[in-house]
Amino acid sequence: MALSGRVLAxxxxxxxxxxxxxxxxxDGRGLWIKRAGLGLEEVRFEDVQLVDWNGQxxxxxxxxxxxxxxxxxxxxxxxxxxxxxxCHPEHAVAFAATGxxxxxxxxxxxxxxxxxARYDHARGLVDTDQVASAVADALGERKALLLSGHGVIAxxxxxxxxxxxxxxxxxxxxxxxxADRMGGVPEESWSSPAVDYAHTLEDAxxxxxxxxxxxxxxxxxx
Length: 222
Hints:
- It is globular and about 50 Å long.
- The protein is an alpha+beta fold.
- The chain has one domain (about 1-220): L-fuculose-1-phosphate Aldolase.
- Helix content is about 35%, strand content about 15%.
- It has helices at about 1-10, 70-75, 90-100, 130-140, 160-180, 195, 205-220; strands at about 20-25, 30-35, 50, 55-60, 85, 115-120, 145, 150-155.
- It starts with a helix and ends with a helix.
């Protein structure tokens, strides 16, 4: 959990003390998440809490994030998932505000070939069961979701997969902005990403990227 925060921050995904990563508790008690009030890169072992399915802290110390329901509702609704990432990367936030569909035209966007979901009614906090459940429904079977005017959500079987998906989504949005400045992407260049980038759809593709991100982050020192 602490490492994922450092990796996300090193990849430019931090936004002051906002943003969080969760991991499903292997004993079914709820999920593990950092305490509120810390930036992603500041998290240490002792800053991680165990929170039950109602969002109540049952182990660890410090305040619980107000948006913990993003994690509890998604993980409760989707037992195949083990981790949820919510953060506010700049390019993805800006792109989400446009209301446009993301053009999936790069190897980075390949893991998102099933599409990127969108939820347009959470510009403020996602801090109620009703809104968090609606977000989980909007996510469906996809790996990532844009919260219009707010941020992103990425999911995976593991923390590594969810965090890497979030980083890939931000890069895809950054490439979209660059392509738009060059005149846009012809539709034929992004109409069949599931075929063109089939080799990126396996978890192994993201796991290789995660291993690199970890090495790069650790090389920067503690």
